[in-house]
Amino acid sequence: MRKTTFFALVIGGLLALGCGAGSSNASGGSADSDAAAGSGDSGGSEETAKTAKVGQAARDGKFEFTVKAPKCGVAEVGDKYLNEKAQGQFCLVTVTVKNIGDKPQTFSDSSQKAFGADDVEYSADSGAAIYANKNADTLFTEINPGNKVTGVVVFDIPKKAKLAKLELHDSPFSGGVTVQLG
User: Fold this and answer.
1) Cα 165 off chain centre by
2) Residue 49 has what pLDDT?
3) Which domain holds residue 64?
4) Is residue 12 part of a domain?
5) Taking the model in full, what pTM does it have?
6) Which of 44, 78, 120, 173 has the greatest count of CB atoms below 10 A from its CB?
C-alpha cells in the first residue's frame, strides 16, 4: 500500500512539473509577442507605446491596429431575416488590423476587450459580429505579413453604459495595447 502511495505521489509530482514547464513556455510566447510590440520604437517609454487614440496606429505584438470611433446605441444587427438583438446596446467598433510581422498571424475578435468609464470589462460578441460584418474578417482570420483587414468588432453593453477604452491583442496571451475612445 505504501509503495503505491509513494509512486502515485512521484507520478503526480512529475505531472505537476510537466504542466508547470508547459505554462512557462506559453508565457514565454507572450513575452516574445510583447517584445515585438516595442521593436519598432526608438527607445520610448513602454507606457507611451501601449496607449493610442481613435485614428492613431497602435501596436501589440505582430499587429498594428487603427480604430474608428465606435457607433453605440445599436439595438439590432443583421437584416430582417437573419439578425441578433442586443441584450442592452451594441457598440460597433471598426478596426483595421495590419500584420507587421514576418509570419502569418491569426486575428480573433474574441481576444479583444472593451472597458466602460467605471473600468467594467466587456467581451466581444462574435455571434453579433457575424451579422454586423459583410465578410468575416474580424471573427477568426489569418493575416499574411504586410496585409491588413478591416471589420467590425461588436460589444453588447448595458443601455446606459459608455465605452471609454479598448484593449486590443494580437493573441489571447499578449499584453495588449490600449486605445482611448474619449
Assistant:
1) 13
2) 54
3) 46-180
4) no
5) 0.72
6) 173
